[in-house]
Amino acid sequence: MLQKLRHLLFICSLSLIASASFASAETPEQIIRAASKDVLEIIQKNEKDAAKTRDLVDQRLSPLADYQRMTSLAVGRYWKSATPAQQEALSKEFRTMMVRTYLSALTLYKNAQINIKGTRAGNDDEEQTIRTEVTLPNQKPIPLDFSFEKVGSSWKVYDITVEGISFINNHRNQFGAVIRKDGIDGLIKNMAEKNNNSRPNK
Fold it and tell me: Where does the record locate the signal sequence feature (predicted)?
């Protein structure tokens, strides 16, 4: 149950920052602050139309996350051995996976609140981690960290950590097991099947 909650919190947290505008002047902290209110409206307005919500979330997430870096980190050492076509397919399915999981979690977070606790510098000026806590009714606050990198003039998320557990590291273990058994094409097929089986009807 705790594992499921962590995974759903990751998706919820992406949605919290997905609806912010991404002007180059905005800092990661400003992005999170601006969107924590907006996302509640998104959930309330679209929760009964899964297909529409899927498309809306995909549009909102597109300018937010560095999908290629996220996927390469999740695939780990196998990324370099993948062909450009395989890398593109992996990134596509990874992106769809995040949106798919978000849709399954929508109704659980109507009353969630996110409180910013501070900013931690990264390895250089191009990276920052925003420390937050997510508050849910009748539950203890849950630590949630957003790792941002600066890409051009915009800040983008490349990892999220819930209670000290990295979303990227968690999936690296899962993906590695599939690749060792079925190869990179096997992972692509595995992700595509799960995405297609969970796709909402138009």
Answer: 1-25
Alpha carbon distance 119, 109 (integer Å) = 24
| Residue 74 and residue 171 in contact, taking contact as beta carbons nearer than 8 Å | yes
Domain containing 153 equals 2-197
- The whole-angstrom separation of Cα 83 and Cα 185 is 10
Q: Could you give the C-alpha distances from 101 to 25, 88, 125, 151, in angstroms and in order?
A: 31, 20, 32, 26
Q: Could you tell me the CATH number of the domain that includes residue 140?
A: 3.10.450.710
**Is the CB of residue 16 less than 8 Å from the CB of residue 34?**
no
Take residue 53 and report the two structure tokens written for it.
């919500």
Q: Is residue 191 part of a domain?
A: yes
Task: Quickly state the pLDDT bin for 177 (edges 50, 70, 90).
Answer: very high
